[in-house]
Amino acid sequence: MSVIFEYFWVADRDAAVEWAIGPGGDWLGERPRDEAGVDRLDVKRIDAHVVLGRLVAFAEAGSSDSGTGPQQVWPDPDKVPCPHETYPLAGTAWDSGLILEHIPESWRDTLAGVVADAVPMLALQWCDIAEMSWDYEEAADCVRMFVGLAQRAKAAGAQLYCRFCA
Asked: What is the distance, to the nearest Å, from the Cα of residue 34 to the centroid of all Cα atoms in its chain?
């Protein structure tokens, strides 16, 4: 079974938590899921840290500063520390299995800056990494989708986020 990663953009951290987790981070309550109100992309096996990170690294070719990687937003690690070496305790935010991460603005800008002529080479490099099991055409389509999502987010002055269930 593959994990589905949901990438989307909204104005800020609070809006991301509201949409992806629930009002005020209440994962147990009802959450309005206005699917039409959020620009999003659902993909399998493309985690933010490794697979998307490799795409960004390929797109940054020659840049020595990739900045920091994705940062966890929810559960807030400052408020609800992850119980390492033990299973999450029932009743904590970790019990939901939901993870929300902020994609760095530098990554958004790098992806948004990819020109159409660069897509074939990026797709060729990306589909060759060990974590990818797609062929070239699927990788090229996915590169275009990520570039488009990043461009729309940047144009709106919004941030990119990734939600998945661990």
From this structure: 19
The length of the chain in residues reads 166
How many angstroms separate the CA atoms of 84 and 100, rounded? Answer: 18
Whether the Cβ atoms of residue 67 and residue 33 lie closer than 8 Å to each other: no
Question: Which DSSP helix (H) or strand (E) runs through 119?
Answer: helix 119-126
Query: Is the predicted pLDDT of residue 24 greater than 80, yes or no?
Result: no
- DSSP, collapsed to helix, strand or coil, labels residue 86 as coil
| Rounded distance between C-alpha atoms, residue 161 and residue 71, angstroms | 9
pLDDT of residue 51: 94
Angle at which helices 136-156 and 105-112 cross, to 10°: 120
Q: How far apart are CA 19 and CA 162, in angstroms?
A: 12
Residues near 19 by Cβ (< 8 Å), separated by ≥ 6?
A: 8, 10, 31, 33, 34, 37, 38
**The two three-digit tokens of residue 110, written as one number:** 């790098």
How far is residue 136's CA from residue 10's CA, in Å, rounded to a whole number?
30
- Kindly report whether the peptide bond that precedes residue 23 is cis, defined as omega within 30 degrees of 0: no
Q: Which two tokens stand for residue 125?
A: 């490099």
| Confidence band, pLDDT 50/70/90 cuts, at residue 62 | low
